[in-house]
Amino acid sequence: MQNARYERKFFLTELNDKQLETVIKLHPAIFSEIYHERQVNSLYFDNHSLDFYQHNVQGSQERLKIRLRWYDDLENALDPNLEFKIKVGLLGSKETIACQNFSSAGDLPTIHDLLIGENNFASLTKHKLKNLQPVLLISYFRRYFQSADKKYRLTIDRDLRFYQINNNQISWNTKLQISATILELKYDQQNDAEADKISSFFPFRMTKSSKYVLGMLKIYPQVKI
Q1: What whole-number distance in Å separates Cα of residue 30 and Cα of residue 26?
Q2: CATH number for 84
Q3: pTM score, two decimals?
Q4: Where would I find the beta strands (DSSP E) of 13-121?
Q5: Nearest to 34 by CA among 198, 183, 153, 184
Q6: Is the four-CA dihedral 91, 69, 118, 53 of positive or negative sign?
Q7: Which domain holds residue 40?
């Protein structure tokens, strides 16, 4: 698996932003902020049976998530990327393809629209992609940190908002917002040996649940697993 990396997630409900920042600054790996905070927007695709969702909930050995990601302005997607997040066990990789700008205020683009003119993307065939539809929009604010040796990265995601998709349009009135913060530790496969030591300094419990699964559970509680 090329560009393989691990991700360890921590779901936090009791610490405020300042307290979490203090925990990070006191870490012996010496994490420092490397990028300005920005808004992350992710439009997730699935089929009518919600197979991607089901596989992630059930913890299948091989799992896939397909999303369209862009930054900052929620209603005007500038320089969006279609991302294929592939996980085998705990190890994940990501393939991306640049897409055309679009507005999320009206009808959402189909996978076919996004891939017009792209013939070299080998993860999935266009035939399979035609059966996918947008099912969930997630938006949040993210901060970025990196250890002094540049082997480990942290992201802090706050102000998570989940939007339902109806008739290929975002239902802006069907929004659910949670106050929890998600901390993620990310590192390349070759740095796994020291990861337990790095994560042991965080007084938090790890979670396996992704934002996609969390959002689907919140927005579509009637969906059977």
Answers
A1: 7
A2: 3.20.100.30
A3: 0.92
A4: 32-46, 62-71, 76-77, 81-88, 91-98, 102-103
A5: 153
A6: positive
A7: 5-219
Query: Can you read off the two tokens belonging to residue 55?
Result: 């596989």
Say which residue the tokens 């030591």 belong to.
197
Does 176 reside within a domain?
yes
10-residue averages of pLDDT along the chain (225 residues): 87 93 97 98 95 91 94 95 91 90 88 66 59 94 98 98 94 91 96 96 90 93 71
**Number of residues that make up the chain:** 225
The answer for residues whose C-beta is within 8 angstroms of residue 127's C-beta and 6 or more apart is none
- When divided into structural domains, the chain yields a total of 1
Q: What is the pLDDT of residue 113?
A: 76
Domain-located, residue 213: yes
**Residue 187 resides in a domain:** yes
Confidence (pLDDT) at 121: 54
| Gap between the Cα atoms of 134 and 143, Å rounded | 26
